[in-house]
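Feature request, filed as a ticket because there's no other form

It would be nice if the structure record came with a short human-readable summary line next to the tokens. Right now we just get the raw output. Example of a typical job, pasted below so the devs can see what we mean:
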Amino acid sequence: IKAILIFNNHGKPRLTKFYVHYAEDLQQQIIRETFQLVSKRDDNVCNFLEGGTLIGGQDYRLIYRHYATLYFVFCVDSSESELGILDLIQVFVETLDKSFENVCELDLIFHVDKVHSILNELVMGGMVLETNMSEILSRFEEQQKLEKSEAGFSTAPARAVSAVKDMNLPQKIKDMKMPDMPHFSSLYQ
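Raw output as currently delivered:
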């Protein structure tokens, strides 16, 4: 897998993951070219086509699914199974749907870290890791539990500051009785 792109019906990218290095401006051009190629196709044609000139032309395929307002596009080399990738897209979307309880475009915008976490359970470094949705979901839930337990540690400094403020230290210092100290002049006599 060379890249995974998700964009809406207007071509706005909602998730981009490139597994091959491209300069930032070239990535933007690839996204625009891919949107142009995919969006102008009818809904009743097959869901794979030759890659655009910027992403590798005949050597690569664009495999996509269009759900409501979003296009899910996987750019793969020509040796990949088109039907296998279509199934992988379906697993990805169903996993997102279960994780967000009816996933929508706003979930991809406001929970980009969770979406990337789910994607990383599915694909890493351009290689498919897992296709079993229940395995992906269980690993994602384990990660969520771990983050929640670590959140308790990250709030500890704030709780400590709050406890110190509640002690009213400035008043306690004023009220503290200090023993009389000899004057410095008497020490040098």
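Something like this underneath would help us a lot:
Residues 3-151 form a domain with the Beta-Lactamase fold (CATH 3.30.450.60).
The CA atoms of residues 58 and 182 lie 91 Å apart.
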